[in-house]
Each structure stands twice: as structure tokens, then as C-alpha cells.
Amino acid sequence: MKHGNLNPEYVPAQHAQKELGINRRACDALVRSGVLGKTAGGISVQDIKLLATWKSQKVFTTGKANIDFQSLFALAVPLTDPKLDIGLGLSASNGLSEARDQLAKQGISIVPGQLITGWWSCGLEYVDLLVKGRYPILGVTGGFVVSGGWVEALAATSDYRQRRAFLVTEMTAEELANFRGHVPEMNQSGIYVA
Q: What is the pLDDT of residues 27-75, one digit of tens each?
């Protein structure tokens, strides 16, 4: 297949979008996060194949009506805002100090390998399940799970739309491999997936 590109290991972004079934914004977010490698020659064919494999291996079920909350579920959260950190962690300008203060009032210290993530829309009934079950929060970029953490505690609650911040322990690469997949529907405040 010819793309007007001298290096067959790289293709134009439009080809990556078509192959993965994503739009330009999702493709840009995957490049920004480092999941899709990009050079002046285009997007890495190897990275496109890797994401296609993730998508073929696991497509998450979304929507509260489709999920058995008595079994393992996760809170999938978007990591696509170019103004924020590409990982799960809260930035200093996004309420990190407030969440840390609330954890300290609970007598909880952050240890290496842990971080605070938020502000995700999550009803109290699901907060209890996430914390007690030590369920995962999955970071999603461009529809693909790119990071994850195990919920340890509710760090803080915002008055705005039941937004919550959680203390999580970052997943190891091996743990994250079990959750690699595609989330076909995503919003900007977090959704439940199984």
C-alpha cells in the first residue's frame, strides 16, 4: 500500500484513524500520550497494529444497565484534555492540594506508587463498591485503556455534580495488560465499564 511516504514503517495520521476507527482528536490524544509514535514521516505502523490488537482482544461493556455491579467493574475516565497531565494523576492546578488535605484529615498518607486521580462523576453507592472492592480506575485515551490504578480510598468530594477524587495505587505493567482494550463510548466525567 502506497502512502506517498518513503518509510513503510510510518503512515499518515488519516490512515491510523481509519484503521483504528477513531477521529483526529482521539488520534492526536494518543500521539500526545506517547501511545502512538509519530515522526515527520507519520504514525508508527507497529503502534497502530498494537492498538488494533488491544481492540480485538477486549471491548468493554458500557452503561449502568449493562453492568453487574456485584462483579468486577471499573470506572473508566478520560485522559484527553490537552491542558491536563496525560496520566491519571491530578495536577497542582486541578485541585491536588485540596484532595491531599482531605486525605490527611482522614489520617491517610500517600506512599510511593500511589497518586490522586479526579474529579470523576461517581455516585456514593459506587464509591463504596470501588473502595471496598479495591476496584480499578482505568485511564482512557482515544478510546483505549492506557493506564490504571486500584482504588484505595475516597480522597475528596466536590459539590459540583458528585465529582470525586480517589487515592489509587498505580497498576503494574502486568496488571494493566489484563485491562488493555477499547472503550467504545466515553464521556468527560467517567463511565462504568465491565
A: 998 998 889 999 888 999 999 999 999 999 999 999 889 999 989 999 9
Give 34's DSSP letter: T
From the CA atom positions of the chain, what is the Rg in Å?
18
**Sequence-ordered list of residues with C-beta below 8 angstroms from that of 140, at least 6 positions apart, any chain:** 76, 77, 78, 79, 146, 183, 186
Instruction: For residues 64 and 191, give the distance between their C-alpha atoms in angstroms, rounded to a whole number.
Output: 8
The CA–CA distances, whole Å, from 151 to 6, 21, 164, 165 equal 46, 31, 12, 10
Which residues of the chain form beta strands (DSSP E)? 10-11, 38-39, 42-44, 74-78, 114-121, 136-141, 144-157, 163-170, 191-193
Cα–Cα distance, 173 to 169 (Å, whole number): 13
What digits encode the pLDDT tens for the residues 99-135? 999 999 999 999 999 999 999 999 889 999 999 999 9
CA distance 12 to 160: 41
Place of cell 485522559: 79
Strands of 1-135 (E only): list them: 10-11, 38-39, 42-44, 74-78, 114-121
Residue 159 confidence class, pLDDT cut points 50, 70, 90? confident
User: pTM for the full model?
Assistant: 0.90
Nearest-angstrom CA–CA distance, 38 and 152: 35
